[in-house]
Structure formats: C-alpha cells, structure tokens
Amino acid sequence: MTLTAEGKGTVEKVSRPRPTLGHVAGRVLLYLMLALLLVPVLFPVYYVFVGTFMEPRELATFPSRLLPTGFDTGNIEGALKAVPLARMYWNSLVMAGIITVSQLCTSALAAYAFVFLRFRGSAVIFALFLSTLMVPAEATFIPNYLTITGWGLGNSYAGLVMPFLAYAFGTFLLRQSFKQFPRELYDAARMDGMGHLRFLWTILLPLSRPALTAVGMYVFITSWNMYFWPLIITRSTEMQTLQIGLNSLKTGEAANPGLLLAGAALSVIPTLVLVIFGQRFIVRGLTAGAVK
Amino acid sequence: MTTGPVIERRVASPHSSSTRHKRARRGKDALLAWGFLLPSAVVFALFLVYPLGRTVYLSMHGNDIIGRPSRFVGLSHFAEMATPQFGQTLMTTVLFTVGVVVPGVAGALVIVLLLEGVIKGQRFLRGAFALPFAFSVASASVIFSVFYSPGNSVLNGILYRLGMDQVPWLTSQEMALWSVCITTVWMNLGYGVLVLAAGIGSIPKEVNEAARIDGATGPRLAWDVTIPMLGPQLFFLIVISTINALQSFGQIHILTAGGPVGSTTTLVYSIFQDAFAYGTSDFGRASAQALVLLLVVLVCTMVQFGVIERKVHYS
C-alpha cells in the first residue's frame, strides 16, 4: 500500500509495482479513515465561524442547523456590546506582547552567557535554569498573587505580566540555536575587537532569526491563551483579557450561544493566523524537547 | 586599557602575554555573564523560588478571613487531606488524566501513521489536523459549552439525526468528566500530531526502505518499524500530556465549575476553589494541595528526564 509513496528516485520508479486491486482498496480505506478522523477535528473550527453568522432563532432550533444559512452580524455586535471585547483584545495584545518581547530579551542574554561566555559554575547554573521548568505555574500562583497584590499591582498590566517576564524554555531553545553558530565567525568578530554586546546585536541575533521567531511565536500563543493567572489577578472588566472575557460572556445574563460563538471566533483569529502561516516555526518551538 | 601595551613590552614571550590577556578577558567575561543572567535570575527568584518557600510556610499556617496567615498549624492541613472528599478529588484527577492522555496520544498516533500513507497533500492534511492548537482553553471551552448546552445542544442534535439517544453531557455526574475530557483531547490533538509527525520525519529513510525491501507494508510497517522508532517521541508526548492534564484548569472552570456535585473537581480546581473562589481565601489549605500538585508533577518530570537521559547514553 505504502510502496507507491516512494518513486522520487529513478531506481524506485523502475521497481514500482503496478497498482493492484488490493492497493486501490487499501488507498480508499486509508482516505476514508482519515476523513472519518478529520471531520470531528475540524467540525468545531467550522461551526464556530458558521454559527457566528447565524440568527439567534436559527441557533435555537433543534436539531441544530449545521449548514451556513445567512450572514447575520448580530452576534458579533451583541458580543461586542455584552463585554468590552475591543478593550480586552487590547489587554491581551499588550500582555502577550510585553511577555514575548521580555522573554526574547532575557532568554537571548542568558543563552548568550551559557554559549559564548566562560564563567565558573556555568553548567550548574544552566541545570538550575532547566530545573525551573519542572515547577508547575499553578503551584506558585497563591504566593505570586499575594506578592503582586501586596505591591499594589493587582488588576494592572504590570501584575499580569510580571511572573512571566522570563522563562527557561526560551533560554534552552536559543542556547541550542546559538551553539550551532559557526565558531570561526565568532572568533573573527572578536579578533576585530568587536564587543560582546555588539556581536550579539549586529551579528548573532540577525542570523538567529528562525530560532527567535520560533520562541516568539510559542511564547505569544501560550501567553495570549493564558487563563488561570489573568482570572485571579484582574478584577475590573477594563483590565481583563480576552480569555476571561469569553468566560464573562458565558456567565453573563445574556448567555446566548450566538454571542459565545462570536466571541470565540473573534478571539481565535490572531492565533489561527499564526498557526496557519507560521506552522513551520511553531513546530520547531513545540517539538524542541521531543526531537534531537 | 592604557597599561596593556606597557605590560606587553615588558614580557618577553608573546605566548605568556596572551595567556595573561586571556585571564583578564575571562574575568571580564564572567562579570558580563552574570550581568546577562541577572534579569532571568531575578524573575525566577521572585516568582518561582520564593513562592515555593512561601507555599511551604502558608501550608503550615491557618489564616484569617482575608487570607493573612495566622497561627501555626503544623501539618494539620496535610492531615485534613485524609478525607473521602479529597480522595475523590485525587481520583477525579487520575481519571481525568487517563481520559485525556490515552485517547489523545492514541489518536495522534493513528493520525500520523495514516498520514504516512498519503502521497499528495500530506503537509496540508497535517496542518488541518493541527488547527485546534490555535484555540485557547477558553475559546475551546466556550465552543464546547454550546455543543453540550442542555437546551439546543449541537451534539445532541447530531445524535438525534443519527437516530441515537441524547447524552446529558454536562448535567450528569457520570458524564461531565468525560465531556471535559473530550474538549481537552480535541484541544491537545494538534500538538500531539505535530510532535509525532516531527518524530516520523526524523526516522532515517534507510530504515523504512530496508523494511519495505523485506516486504513490510502498511499496518505491518507501522507496527514493527515506525512505532518502535517513535519510542522517544511517544514517551515525550505521554509525559507532557500527563503534566498538562494535571494542570488543566480553564476547561473545568468554564464548562462545569467543578460540578455537578464535585464530579469534575480536580486537584488544580480544588486549589482554585479554596484560594480564590467564593471569596474563601483559604490559602493555607490551598497551599498544602499546591504542594501535592508540585510533588506529582515533579515525579512525572523526573521520570521523563531519567528515561531520556538513559536514551541519550544508549545512542
């Protein structure tokens, strides 16, 4: 069945057997099984956008309509009215943006120290950095909540981002990338009397763009999607992020499926765009731990 | 820096001058290294290391109504955990974890193995399977709350058309946990597909070729060659999925709020309820549970590191 998957080299092409009835049947079965799996995976993605543009009475029918009906923007308007979604969008953007930029900076500096600078205890400190990854964030939220509200930073952007300004995962990934940087280039730059900071900024970082993009996208998506911390640290709707706004849509008095779907559709667009167009980079960031 | 040339002139051999120079540079390098590590270290110290200590402290103290630690209670918060209620919380956590990890990993494995047989459009199909990754916990949960809603449930509508019985997705104690599992599996499937697909991509071409020459095709090839070769990635995925499942919170908060009758209250949700819900602020009790969570996750990570370490030594 899978023999036909070959055929790029000429040798295989010659030895490729003629498709028999069994091959064809296997092929049909394969696509049938894939289709059977793909439908439930894609159905929620499909329905959130189709349902967003349905009229309330269409959404209330039973059995539910599954095909697109019209193009009613009432749900989007309703969702925008029920909670300040635009403001929440901005909050999410500011939060995820600050966290991403900060993690890129702190990770790049730390990774540089581990790869290009010699200092005593380098290996031990790297192990300590890695060990921070073992601590589940949920186990630190109570003291962090007390610390940040104690500083009077509850319900503020500072409070939202502070615990996440650095994370060892980015350091780990960038270290891997920096280690592959040609040593001769580094030596040549140093020989020319170039300082570490200038080398980092003008040569290393521009050449490490794929790794930086991978880390940046990963950090942006995970912080854009954060739920627990923004839920406990924000109090006013003015400071809440989009994800918390979605929950308010559900618990609010106007809980209505159309508004929920519209809110979910609006909230998912940025990350959906990133996943569709930046998958190459995301795969790199996600799978760094799994593949050598 | 002005002394540099003077020293060099005094020293006869250029070799020793360079070592001295190197030593000076090394000292500067070390200083710079500490400077570069400082920003990360400050964040880790304030929001990771200190909280661990404070969690231990809080877990051994009672607290007043607004959560300020009051008297020392020793290990009584831990002793209080020996109740049927907390036992149920742990049981729910285990069931939820199994209900998320087993179908999630198996599903991702089946998908990537089937994708291996696809000639044209493999990348496109893989991308399609990975799409749910874009959905946040909150958006996925909100969408599934519409699917599950008792009134005009989309899923029950589909079952009705297929002539099947209605399911009390979130309203029955037996079903609610599995409904939350279904949502979580859907959310995480894309990640599993990406990890395993990357693993398949890293299998040397010669291995597959050799197996094919020996006559292995289709399911046989998958079972005897691909799955064993995927060992490290499968293991990684199982551990990561387990850790993620143990930390799941948003889907429970949005879909069931721990109910009905506590049937979906996992460890993390229980921590949230004690510390932050209904203005309870029982930080002591919640901290004790947070330490249990920490311990469980730590063990999972240790297992992962241990096994991967051994794998590395093998190759």
Automatic annotation (TrEMBL), chain A:
CDD domains named among the record's database cross-references: TM_PBP2 (cd06261)
Topology term for the membrane: Multi-pass membrane protein
Parts forming coiled coils: none
Keyword Transmembrane part of the UniProt annotation: yes
Biological process terms in GO annotation: transmembrane transport
Record field: transmembrane: 28-49, 93-117, 124-145, 157-178, 199-221, 258-277
InterPro entries: MetI-like, MetI-like_sf
GO cellular component term of the entry, any: plasma membrane
Pfam family of the protein (one): BPD_transp_1
Keywords: Cell membrane, Membrane, Transmembrane, Transmembrane helix, Transport
Subcellular location: Cell membrane
Chief localisation class: membrane
Residue ranges annotated for the ABC transmembrane type-1 domain, each copy included: 89-278
Highest taxon of source: Bacteria
Keyword Transmembrane helix: yes
Recorded family membership: Belongs to the binding-protein-dependent transport system permease family.
UniProt protein name: ABC transporter permease subunit
Natural source organism: Nocardiopsis alba
